[in-house]
Write a structure and sequence with these properties.
By secondary structure, the protein is of the alpha/beta class. The protein is 40% helix and 20% strand. The chain starts with 11 loop residues before the first helix and ends with a strand.
């Protein structure tokens, strides 16, 4: 696993920036699959995007999120938009290492069932709770807080998802979102909210054309 500085100690904003810069740099000269030694998951991480027509998150983005979870020892994650489970494999692998759990939500049954099969094949079905549901209805029914949220669903809905999870994430936890660069026009209200929310510290990771927003909940 890559080693880099975390942000939970002091000077959160500065350490947050250093963390993202360091991790982004480390990904420029290393394979995203480096040091992944799970022989069940690794072949799927390499092959699944090709079989799905390139609609999954880039492997580098998956590895980025994976490393954030592990470095900060997050225990309870929520993914909004499972699709066929590729991003969930990265997240689930990280939560397996931290001893945590991931809940992932998908409304399209065919994709969700494919994802459930992939999680079983990867041996991560005990870590990942994959639900076929309407996330707008399901999230309010889930009890407790999260320390990590990943949004990768219908882009115009990002703002509403942010409103649903904003006060469900612990201080020091993260709200992350995909496609904030290549689909930014479809979620401008969401991006504006990230900028104006005084309780968030947000950076945009530009390692891929899609773009990731990483927002830490301030203490």
């Amino acid at each position: 696993m890559r080693k880099f500085i975390g942000w939970k100690a002091t000077g959160m904003g500065i350490l947050f920036f250093v963390l993202l810069q360091t991790l982004s740099f480390s990904q420029t000269d290393k394979s995203p699959f480096a040091d992944i030694d799970n022989n069940r998951v690794l072949p799927m991480l390499k092959s699944l995007p090709r079989t799905y027509g390139g609609m999954n998150i880039p492997a580098a983005d998956g590895r980025f999120l994976h490393d954030l979870i592990i470095e900060n020892k997050y225990q309870r994650g929520l993914e909004i938009g499972t699709s066929n489970g590729y991003s969930g494999l990265w997240l689930g692998l990280a939560f397996q290492e931290t001893g945590g759990k991931l809940i992932t939500l998908e409304i399209e049954r065919k994709r969700a069932e494919e994802a459930q099969g992939n999680f079983i094949k990867a041996g991560l079905d005990q870590v990942i709770d994959a639900r076929i549901c309407d996330a707008f209805k399901e999230i309010p029914e889930i009890e407790g807080e999260f320390d990590f949220v990943f949004i990768d669903a219908w882009k115009p809905d990002y703002m509403e998802f942010l409103q649903l999870v904003r006060h469900r994430v612990k201080p020091g936890g993260l709200i992350t979102a995909h496609n904030v660069l290549n689909a930014g026009r479809e979620m401008q209200d969401f991006l504006d909210a990230l900028k104006t929310d005084q309780g968030l510290e947000t950076k945009i990771v530009r390692n891929s054309n899609a773009g990731l927003s990483i927002s830490i909940i301030k203490k």
